[in-house]
Write a structure and sequence with these properties.
This protein is mostly beta strands. The chain is about 10% helix and about 35% strand. Strands 2-1-11-12-8-16-6 form a 7-stranded antiparallel sheet, with no helix packed on it. Strands 3, 4, 18, 20, 21, 24 and 25 form a 7-stranded mixed sheet that branches. Strands 27, 30, 31, 32, 36, 40 and 41 form a 7-stranded mixed sheet that branches.
Amino acid sequence: MRSARRLTSGSSLLLVVLGFGLAVSQFRGQAQSGPVVTDPLPYSLSFTVPGDYAVSTVDFVPRQTQGGFQTETLRMQTATGGPVVPDGANIIAAYLYWETIWTQPSEAIGAKFRGRDITLVRGVDTGLGGPYAPCWSNGGQTMTQFRADVLPLLALELDEHNNPTGRRLVNDRDLIAAGEPLNTVTLPERGVGNQTPQSAGATLLVVYQNPAATTLRRIVVFDGAHLHLPGETASQRIRGFLQSARPANPDAVMGQLTQIAGSGSPNRTDRLLFNGTLLPGGTGRLSATGGGQSDRAWAAPTFDVTGRMMTGATIAGEYGEQVTATVGHGSASPYDCVAQAATVFSTDVTDTDDDGLLDILEDPTPYGVNQLVDPNGAAYPALQRMGAHVGTRDLFVELTAMFADRTLTYGSPSAPYNEEKGQVTVQAPPHDHLPGPAVLKAAGDAFDRAGIRAHFDVGAPGAYRSHFGPAYPSPNAADEYLIGSGVGTGNAADASLARGGEAIREHACTIASEPWCQFPDFPGTVNWKLHYQQLRDAWVAEDGSELTNAGLDQCAKRTDAEPACRRRFDPTRNHIFRTVLFAHARGISRSPFPCVPDGVAEPTIAQLIAASYLGADKTCAAGTHVNPQFHVPQRSSGVADLPGENAMVTLGLSKNFL
């Protein structure tokens, strides 16, 4: 049985049962001595970027450890010491994969990246019993393949004034130049021998945008956990990139493939194939680099499949173009217990108008369909019915906004609203941060003058018009920019196309239920970016309205056999639509120091730093007290990703609260 596991920084484990259905079929063109599995890993992530992905891998070769943990370095450099990620590129995603075998759940806790606790972790368990018993001689253990979002843990690039530039550092050369330590990973490890916990190794996967890139690239990731049976061949149908670029020379179609996996007893006959053909250097790439028969190995071989895209690739109808990546063996003995964690693939795609949108998404008719779907069968947005055109630079933006339906109080004696002006609290009448039609028309017109056609999703246009009542005269020039309004070339009069415009009620957070709560006296304050992402990706009702706690619990309890609850931002819109949240305030404090020393009227920076080391209970230590300004948000108009994907507008601390 496999199950998903979430770890929260050194605390308890939450197990959610997942069933990964494995379609068994005959893999054509290769004789089989064991079972054949199709699609061993579920579709997980996708990116559309002028850039690519890069990986760094370390195999945890067994050695004596102290304290039950082993630390290794993830080198990010070429064979000649050069950068793996191009100079000037922006890291937009970073994931760490690793494998641990454990007996007690507590043994799997404590992983670190760059010396810091890893949070935002998902794990998939496989019990080492039955046919998998030979994978661990003692029996009764569990193997878990983990994936963690470590983007927030990457080192920040600083300018000459020590201010963050917004870029993250990952190359060895850049880290050394900035005086930062190299990337390290610390995993649970008992050491040499058949003991738990044992960690096979780790892989860092980074996705980057390269300002110097001249082509658009699609990256798809299939991940989870799949432990091979003896003699098994597993073939992954790679979908979701939709359509590779078509240069004049078919042999020039760009492609890159990475298989991330752990293995046991060395079997040098493992074979990695692409579109049914053995890759050059594709034999013996998953075997152990050191250690004995009982020690797990870890590998992430990466292959340039440029020139191999057209041989064996197929068109899978509404799924678009499809290639296959296969893991098998020349011999089933010894049984090496290959455990696949991820398959990553990228290829150049066609975007003739340079708007960041695949031509095939703007017009899927070359595949004989009206709408494309992702590898899970979920429909991509029907851009052509929203007014998109190949040859026009289109921009799609989904808007979400906070509102207050009653008078709210901001500030308190322990966190004054504006201490300099003597304002302890301020009361704001009911208000709504959703931008009105005049704002959208002005924005749409500005984009139009720049040669960009804007398409705003504010929800059903009729409901948007009703929301503003007399302030929205009909007809209104903003309608041509509203998805589903029926105004504008190709923009269908279909409210079902509009999935945005969700309203979020401002509320005061509570530390007991929301650990990130830093501004409990300022309703509608949103931290960037974790809190923003939680709001963006939260479960909502089918009509987009907020769910009660009971409704959220029901969503969490749904099984794989049941339809998943709707997300506020549809996952299939990722990297197609930009998202903008209009919140009350941005969660950036007036002071970065949570505590101040007692009896010091004007403490120095050194004194403030010394006073702000919190105790185990997250409270100020003896001789210090809470700094009120740490719990008061700054005035900030907003924040956005660079060079642009997600954004938040926060004007609630201005005079009219909007």
